[in-house]
Design brief:
This protein is α/β, with parallel strands linked by helices. Helix content is 40%, strand content 17%. Strands 1, 2, 3, 4, 5, 6 and 7 form a seven-stranded parallel sheet that branches. Helix 4 runs parallel beside helix 9. The radius of gyration is 16 Å and the shape is globular. It starts with a helix and ends with a helix. The relative contact order is 0.20.
């Protein structure tokens, strides 16, 4: 089967979901807690590509899930067992439940049929959240992973999806991390071993067709 036909078969709208990872205002927005990452995702057009891909998914009837990382104002339930978690507690912008920081960032569209899945702990959009159960209830077999960061949450999402039996598809130009060359190396040397690596245009093309 030619590669384009294989990709189209994987991306059947009836059995595919699009996941946006931490595309929230406090991470990728203008007032981000992580300004270097926010600059990277916006200046390279990654956020715009995610927004366009999300809009295409809506038109094609593909289920969209937005994975948001947040914490309670009192910190209850949040982990402190990693340097990353402890550093996040000291950032000027906090991803607090109910704040604007945990709203999906513009220009990514959120439709009524989208699912917004929020997590209070951990590193992964899948482990310890409702995402797996929701996907199975929806009959999803392929998960398209987009968003940030390529340093932590995106590879976690891909690995967890594969471990749970899903086919993972990664549009390489719709994920971002810092520094930029790390993202390229991650895709080439790691994600390509476990996921179908493609582009946002190729994914959108399958859904438009």
């Amino acid at each position: 089967m030619p590669p384009t036909d294989r990709l189209a078969a994987q991306l059947d709208p009836a059995t595919t979901a699009l996941l946006t990872v931490e595309c929230q205002r406090g991470v990728v927005g203008e007032e981000s807690a992580l300004p270097e990452l926010a600059r990277q995702v916006r200046s390279t057009g990654v956020l715009d590509r995610i927004a366009q891909l999300t809009a295409t998914a809506h038109r094609a009837g593909v289920q969209v899930l937005h994975a948001v990382a947040e914490r309670r104002p009192d910190g209850r339930g949040a982990g402190r067992n990693a340097r990353l978690f402890r550093a996040a507690e000291r950032l000027a912008v906090q991803q607090l439940t109910g704040s604007t920081a945990v709203q999906v960032a513009e220009p990514v569209p959120v439709a009524d049929q989208d699912l917004v899945v929020r997590r209070l702990h951990g590193l992964s959009p899948l482990a310890g959240t409702d995402v797996d159960a929701l996907l199975r209830n929806l009959g999803v077999r392929t998960l398209v992973v987009t968003g940030v960061s390529a340093n932590v949450a995106v590879p976690n999402a891909v690995f967890d999806a594969v471990n749970l039996g899903y086919t993972a598809v990664v549009p390489a130009d719709a994920i971002a991390g810092v520094p930029a060359d790390y993202t390229a190396a991650l895709v080439r040397h790691t994600l390509a071993l476990v996921a179908t690596v493609t582009t946002a245009d190729e994914v959108a093309g399958c859904w438009r067709d």
